[in-house]
Amino acid sequence: LITSAGLAPGDRIAGKAELQERVGVARSTIGEAIKILQDRGLITVKSGPGGGIFVAEADHSVRIKRLFVASQGDASRAIDAVVLRDHLEPLVLRDAAEHSSADDIDNLRALLDEASAVLDNPELALRRIWAVHRRIGEIPPNYFLRSTYVGLIDFLDSHLGTPETMP
Predict the structure, then answer these.
(1) Are 141 and 104 in contact (CB under 8 A)?
(2) Is the pLDDT assigned to residue 97 strictly greater than 90?
(3) How far apart, in whole angstroms, are the C-alpha atoms of residue 51 and residue 121?
(4) Judging by DSSP bridges, how do beta strands 12-14 and 52-55 pair with one another?
């Protein structure tokens, strides 16, 4: 609703009951969705008169997440994400190599072993390869590089489907 209606930080989305009626799901489902969106920093909930669910003021990581959410279902956005990831990857790899600990290396080796063990299942292997890239992306100390790269990996992992359908 935030992206499709073009809502800005501070805009009211709806009240809980209004939202439940609008989307046609159980009250517990709305409650869980609200909790998840609050945890992600995407919404705030205000009680009392004039209250309801509002678009949160966004820090940089939330803006990046919103960009990925707004891109769902758009194949050209997936291709754009692949291109951007390809451009960021050398920076991420350099920083990860420079700042990795022995535990990071052990963790990456274990993830690579897990990926190697399922090469006969391309979809599962691809998911495990994304996990390797995600872990590498979590190592660099640069907040913006790390957030952008991990966000791209999460987006690609959840939106590209099977290896045969990847751009």
Answers:
(1) no
(2) yes
(3) 49
(4) antiparallel
- Residue 4 pLDDT > 70, yes or no? yes
Q: Both tokens of residue 141?
A: 């100390």
pLDDT for the residue numbered 73:
59
Cross-strand pairs, 44 = 54
Q: Encode the chain in three state secondary structure.
A: CCCCCCCCCCCEEECHHHHHHHHCCCHHHHHHHHHHHHHCCCEEEECCCCCEEEECCCCHHHHHHHHHHHCCCCHHHHHHHHHHHHHHHHHHHHHHHHHCCHHHHHHHHHHHHHHHCCCCCHHHHHHHHHHHHHHHHCCCCCHHHHHHHHHHHHHHHHHCCCHHHCC
pLDDT at position 102 is: 96
Structure pTM?
A: 0.57
Of the candidates 158, 3, 139, the one whose C-alpha atom is nearest the C-alpha of residue 81 is: 158
